[in-house]
Structures are given as structure tokens and as C-alpha cells.
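stage 2 :: seqdesign
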């Protein structure tokens, strides 16, 4: 069945504000890390946790797009497979901490790397779903911002 794409809606201003505000926790964590204070470790742990949570959150957004695409007549199976990947990757990046291996540097690096690449999944979804105007620009900004901060913190972990 051929998908008929509906005209894209405009991304609400509240989404832009909330999205960019979502960078604040990582900025605070980075400030703690670079402050040289006794809260350096807290900043690293918070930076990892926040990045992993947001990466998993992206999977939830993609899951929602899969449900919508299903209604539009698109085969959603591949979308759901992509949607669960962030949670699985985030969990895998958590295992070194559980097992007492080198942490948090490698975990921060992997999560940062995957966050920076995550808009490529959105580009793929754009071929299958109706995404709001401005979505890709926001995704690139937020993913490069959060992913870049996370990746840079891996270098000092």
C-alpha cells in the first residue's frame, strides 16, 4: 500500500523551548565536572544518566512515530526495531558500571557518539512518516549539543 503523506504541521514553539531547555541538565553536569570541586564525580554520573535517559526517550518518540506510520499504511516493523535500539544501547553502556569495569569514560563516549548520530534515524523516518516542519533542524541541534557535551565529558572522565 502506498503511503499518502499528509502535509507536515509546524513544530510548536513550546517544543522548541522545552527542547533547548533540555540541554540545561547536561550543562550543569559539565559545570560540576569542570569546576574541580568535590562534585566532579556526581557531575560525571549525572551526565551519563541524563544522556542515557534522553537517548532512551528518543526511542519512545520513534515508537510513537511507528504507531502513527502504521495508521498511514507504512510497514512499522522496521520502525519499532529502530525505536528499541536506544534503550538497548543505553542499557549496554550501563553494564561496565555494574560489572566494575572502566566507567564512566567509555560509556559517556558511546552514548555521546550515538546521540550525535541519532538524527540519521530521524532522516530515515522522514521517508516513512509525516514529521513537523522544523523537526530535523531541532533534532540536529539537540543531538549535536547533548551528544557533543556528553562525548567531551568522556575525554575528561
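stage 2 :: out
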Amino acid at each position: 500500500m502506498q503511503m499518502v503523506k499528509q502535509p507536515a504541521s509546524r513544530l510548536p514553539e513550546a517544543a522548541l523551548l522545552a527542547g533547548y531547555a533540555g540541554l540545561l541538565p547536561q550543562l550543569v553536569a559539565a559545570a560540576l565536572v569542570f569546576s574541580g570541586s568535590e562534585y566532579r564525580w556526581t557531575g560525571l554520573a549525572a551526565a551519563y544518566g541524563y544522556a542515557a535517559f534522553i537517548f532512551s526517550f528518543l526511542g519512545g518518540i520513534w515508537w510513537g512515530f511507528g504507531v502513527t506510520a502504521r495508521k498511514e499504511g507504512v510497514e512499522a516493523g522496521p520502525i519499532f526495531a529502530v525505536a528499541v535500539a536506544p534503550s538497548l544501547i543505553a542499557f549496554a553502556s550501563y553494564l561496565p558500571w555494574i560489572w566494575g569495569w572502566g566507567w564512566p569514560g567509555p560509556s559517556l563516549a558511546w552514548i555521546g557518539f550515538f546521540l550525535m548520530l541519532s538524527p540519521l534515524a530521524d532522516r530515515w523516518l522522514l521517508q516513512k512518516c509525516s514529521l513537523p516542519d522544523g523537526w530535523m533542524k531541532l533534532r540536529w541541534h539537540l543531538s549535536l549539543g547533548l551528544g557533543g557535551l556528553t562525548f567531551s565529558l568522556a575525554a575528561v572522565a
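stage 3 :: structure notes
- DSSP finds seven helices and no strands in the chain.
- The chain has a mean pLDDT of 91.
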